[in-house]
Design goal:
CATH topology of the largest domain: Uridine Diphospho-n-acetylenolpyruvylglucosamine Reductase, domain 3
Helix content: 25-40%
CATH class of the largest domain: Alpha Beta
Number of domains: 2
Order of helices and strands: HEEEEHEHHEEEEEHEEHEHHEEEHEH
Strand order of the largest sheet: 13-10-12-11-15-16-14-17
Radius of gyration: 21 Å
Number of helices: 10
Structural class: alpha+beta
Strand content: 15-25%
CATH architecture of the largest domain: 2-Layer Sandwich
């Protein structure tokens, strides 16, 4: 405990000194998501000394961990009790931390069915740009009166403050799981997903990808044994062995599937993330490229040069969605240039006001979300 208090005091002192000198700080845990943002700069402020699980109540489905705790350690502790983080946060490499998981706000294949990181965030403790230690939320679901400030930190990429502790709701591992495979084109895959979405089926995740010109739709079911077995019979397709399918779902989460790896062999290709209404049709993409489709149609990954950015943004806008650069060309570099695209001037103003309120000197993670930050 004394070691943690000492580490926390050191970090508070670093933030106070940086604010006084207006010296940028680059908040960093395991560094597995350094690909995101513009040119990352500033003195590195390592959160990993803030390590360990503060409290865990399996019967209450609540865990509190320090921000520098390895994400793999937290998941291992939950697994021992038959529990999990249902939103399946991607690690993107060894060393991913709990604080980085919340700051990035990224969710895995199950996000469309179970919710996002922010939906499981109960409370946070953070250091703001004035070197003040602030607590928001708590360790129960009904603990918010007014604005739920803690959820602002999910997806803020550390631009609003340095997380020191986070409290999360966890869930039991589903008693049954099955993966079904269907051979179909993208349009047929979307039609199937839309139809299934209106039925009482235990849908958990989906992934459509084209391999050697052949489209394959994979659907993961999770829930009660009877519900999963009944869904397998009514939906059809080929049921895969769970031991075989599980690594592929993990590869989808970590973007290590062959579809993602192919980009690295083709110079000039960036990875774009298209967030769309799940009912959006097949998009006419530049160059006739084939996307990888997740989240029952709501998330579509596209490999295309940076020059196609405007075309992709317009294609997404027309159907009510948005497109953002996730990883730019040069993914082998420490910082590959992914960037969030804010949808409107009004949204930019809201972000700027929040930033000024939490970090008036602008010292935290400049370049992570918007150029003016």
């Amino acid at each position: 405990m004394q070691a943690m208090e000492f580490a926390l005091r050191q970090i508070v002192d670093r933030v106070r000194a940086a604010a006084a000198a207006q010296t940028p700080l680059r908040i960093r845990g395991g560094g597995t998501k350094d690909f995101h943002g513009l040119a990352l700069h500033g003195e590195v402020l390592d959160t990993r000394p803030l390590n360990g699980i503060v409290s865990y109540e399996p019967s209450e489905l609540v865990v509190t961990a320090r921000a520098g705790t390895p994400l793999s350690d937290l998941e291992a502790v939950l697994a021992e009790k038959g529990q999990c983080l249902p939103f399946e946060p991607p690690h993107f490499g060894p060393g991913a931390t709990v604080g980085g998981m919340v700051a990035a706000g990224l969710s895995g294949p199950a996000r469309a069915s179970v919710g996002a990181v922010r939906d499981y965030l109960l409370g946070v403790v953070l250091i703001n740009g004035r070197a003040e230690l602030l607590t928001f939320g708590g360790q129960v679901m009904k603990n918010v009166a007014g604005y739920d400030v803690s959820r602002l930190m999910a997806g803020a990429w550390g631009t609003l403050g340095l997380l020191t502790e986070v409290s999360l709701k966890v869930l039991p591992v589903a008693p049954a799981e099955a993966t079904l495979r269907f051979e179909c084109n993208q349009a047929d895959a979307l039609r199937k997903l839309h139809a299934w979405g209106g039925q009482p089926l235990p849908l958990n995740a989906s992934c459509w990808v084209e391999d050697a010109g052949v489209g394959q739709l994979y659907v993961r079911l999770r829930g009660a044994v009877a519900a999963v077995d009944a869904a397998c019979k009514s939906m059809g397709g080929t049921r895969l062995d769970n031991a075989t399918a599980a690594p592929d779902w993990q590869a989808c989460r970590e973007q290590t599937l062959p579809w993602f790896a192919a980009r690295l062999a083709r110079p000039g290709q960036a990875l774009w993330r298209l967030s769309l209404p799940a009912t959006a049709p097949v998009l006419a993409l530049p160059g006739g490229v084939s996307p990888l489709v997740e989240w029952h149609g709501a998330l579509r990954w596209v490999q295309a040069p940076l020059a196609h950015g405007d075309v992709l943004r317009e294609a997404a806008r027309v159907v009510g969605g948005s497109a953002s650069l996730f990883i730019a060309d040069g993914a082998g570099e420490e910082r590959a240039g992914g960037q969030l695209d804010l949808k409107s001037a009004a949204l930019e103003q809201i972000h700027a006001r929040l930033k000024h309120s939490f970090d008036p000197a602008g010292i935290f993670n400049p370049g992570r979300m918007a150029p003016q930050w």
